[in-house]
TrEMBL record:
Descriptive protein name: Ribonuclease Z
Key words, A-Z: Endonuclease, Hydrolase, Metal-binding, Nuclease, tRNA processing, Zinc
Self-association and partners: Homodimer.
Binding residues annotated for Zn(2+) 1, in chain numbering: 62, 64, 139, 210
Amino acid sequence: MQITFLGTSSGVPTRSRNVSAIALRLPQQSELWLFDCGEGTQHQFQRSDLKVSQLRRIFVTHMHGDHVFGLMGLLASCGLAGNVEHMDIYGPPKLQDYLQSCIRYSQTHFSYPYKIHTVEPGIVYEDSRYRVSCHPLKHRVPAFGYRVQEKDRPGKFNVERAKALGIPSGPLYGKLKKGEWITLPDGRKIHGAKLCGPTQVGRSFVYCTDTIFCEGAVELSQGADLLVHESTFAHQDAQLAYDRLHSTSTMAAQVALAARVKQLMLTHFSPRYAPGNALQLDDLLVEARAIFPNTEMAHDFLSYEIARP
């Protein structure tokens, strides 16, 4: 699991930061999943080493423009390129109305099948490897945070030990690798877990934006390997955060601390902290680290590999 930040600014883009978008690369499935799609995201794809042809799922947190204005352009370009097999798009209730209006008024036709899923709290997608769930956040419009949870996998199968026990290769090995019980022709019962190494614990990624500090973010983030959380404002601008229902650097750190995550990555920064201003982004990082030391600051095109526990 690898995260690539395609946009880390809030509200409007700057010279060095585009608006919100994060890609999750799943190499084992040759898939990309996208979280939010601010204006210009398709250009950010072209500037990265990501392959838009691998894009399969898009998860939208809420309907503010800096999180959705790039969606229609990206979907239309995928259709013109003709290299996307299908697309599943997840988001709040107004997402379907928005996209259908864009399609109707721009007379755009997608050359690939797509489906729009209206999300509700709980599991929004699940396959044999991953589970994606969402939880409401606290913002000016309906907003959701997302958690991607990789499922635990059995440890490495010991082929040599299986051979020593006289177990013939073939379908039985597949059952043993899954940790199942098998019965051999001579009546012996073998538990697959005994022939596998330690369980490979699944990794987890949580994305929370836009929101002020809320218990929903804490609940969603419990024990996550990586929490990406908005940090629009500095602590001294907390009143702005309360007024606009955004987070400060310290609020993001408090979520990480309360949820006992392993790594916090800040994103969604206000342009007011650009170089040359009295307060700069490094100050926000210092504030967050005072509460949660294992904090880093995202920038456009930063890639972060989520290591196995």
